[in-house]
Amino acid sequence: MGDSINTxxxxxxxxxxxxxxxxxxxxxxxxxDNVKHCVCGVSGGADSVSxxxxxxxxxxxxxxxxxxxxxxxxxxGAAADSDQEYVEELCRKxxxxxxxxxxDVQTMASDRGFxxxxxxxxxxxxxxxxxxxxxxxxxxxxxxxxxRNDVAETVIFNMARGTGMGGIKGIAPVRENIVRPLLGCDRxxxxxxxxxxxxxxxTDATNNEDDYTxxxxxxxxxxxxxxxxxxxVEHICDMAELAADYERLASGVVEEFLKSxxxxxxxxxxGWTGTxxxxxxxxxxxxxLFAQNKLIRELAIRQLVGLVCGGLKDIxxxxxxxxxxxxxAETGAGIDLPGGGRVYVQYDRIIFxxxxxxxxxxxxxxxxxxxxxxRDGIYEMGNVRLTVRIYDRPKMLDLSKKECTKYLDYxxxxxxxxxxTMKNGDYIVVNSAGSRKKLNRLFTDxxxxxxxxxxxxxxxxxxxxxxxxxxxxxxxxxxxDNTRRILHMEFENAGQR
Length: 497
Description:
Elements: H1 7-13, H2 17-28, E1 37-41, H3 46-62, E2 65-72, H4 78-94, E3 97-102, H5 105-112, H6 116-132, E4 140-143, H7 148-161, H8 165-168, E5 174-175, E6 178-179, H9 187-197, H10 213-228, H11 232-260, E7 281-285, H12 286-291, H13 294-309, H14 317-325, E8 334-336, E9 341-346, E10 349-354, H15 357-364, E11 369-371, E12 377-381, E13 384-392, E14 405-409, E15 417-420, E16 427-429, E17 436-438, H16 439-445, E18 458-461, E19 464-468, E20 472-473, E21 485-493
Parallel strand pairs: 1-2, 1-4, 2-3, 4-6
Antiparallel strand pairs: 5-6, 7-10, 8-9, 9-10, 11-15, 12-13, 13-21, 14-21, 15-18, 16-17, 18-19, 19-20
Helix pairs in contact: 3-9, 5-6, 7-10, 7-11, 11-13, 13-14
């Protein structure tokens, strides 16, 4: 591909100034280098109609074959069907293949717990990628029709709901397999181009309603900003480009810091703003993390949170701030995050982890089990089995320390007992004076990793721990010379049966 349009070809094909502008933007970001196929999303609106028109007229220069995808969201009834017919007719006129999909987006949103906007976007990109994969071996990208106004609207939207540099940078010209050839143009230029070419386009009536947040920004907020300064859109887009430059610089520093901690995010094939698939576990030295510049510290945390939470969709600065507090917390302290992520302190390190299916199964099998104190019995909790026997104290009783067998003074137990796992507020009595120790502190002293503490079976009387299996029994339940009846407890897990 050359750096300029051939003069003879320009005269022959009457290249419009708008098309020249788009071609320059395409070349600036190398959008179609080593690409033979382009999947173009076309809704029938002005933006997407101008995109497919420009690409049809420039495909000879670009050396690409076009494939249109249209999504009927099945929301607007006959109007949506009319848009679909228009796009299919336009493709026939242009000699371009058209793949139309009818997707019930409202039902999809309801079934998956999304907003209609989120479901629509997911449906579109799934369809785009379905077609793209057909040509993947020859080089194929997806072209969508975002423009400069979309960038400005996105920046304002993200600022209103709370964001960092990642949100201020707006929309990238190229991201993975997606290219945006119109991102250097504003909406007035797009509509002016279609008017000059005499090409009609569809108008979605919902775009004129203010039910959606973006429409409020488009119809109310942005016009007011343009009243203040007619170049407001351009200035917002310039700020977005600067934010992208700053973020690229910061991301390099963060990547180097994480590499020093043995975490190579480049090997994960993940973008700076997170991932849609989740990883297992990452560990950083909390002293080293705390010593970083505040910005780098926060961005490193955000990067790691994105990796274990499946992206940053529901992650805000408040979550990052809560993780920051763990730099000064005791071992065992931790927080759960949206998306199934967890961050906790393990001695001198902070662990970022993903809750696995086995973790979930473990939790499901750990509902508390009541122990009947009137008779012998066997009680099971997940893979744990506890055998309980009650009898008069024999003359000879082997009180030697055994990890999984304990003898307690039955008559000292005045509450009902449960077999369960740890809860907030648990404690154990540690001496004859009745001094208490928090269960978390007991685990810390025993050097039990935070991610294993929820696995340890407990025999509890309310919040008081009678027996932390494998560790110790409460001092006030020990057998003494005055003990009359014995509570004999024996623990085993699945691997011991």
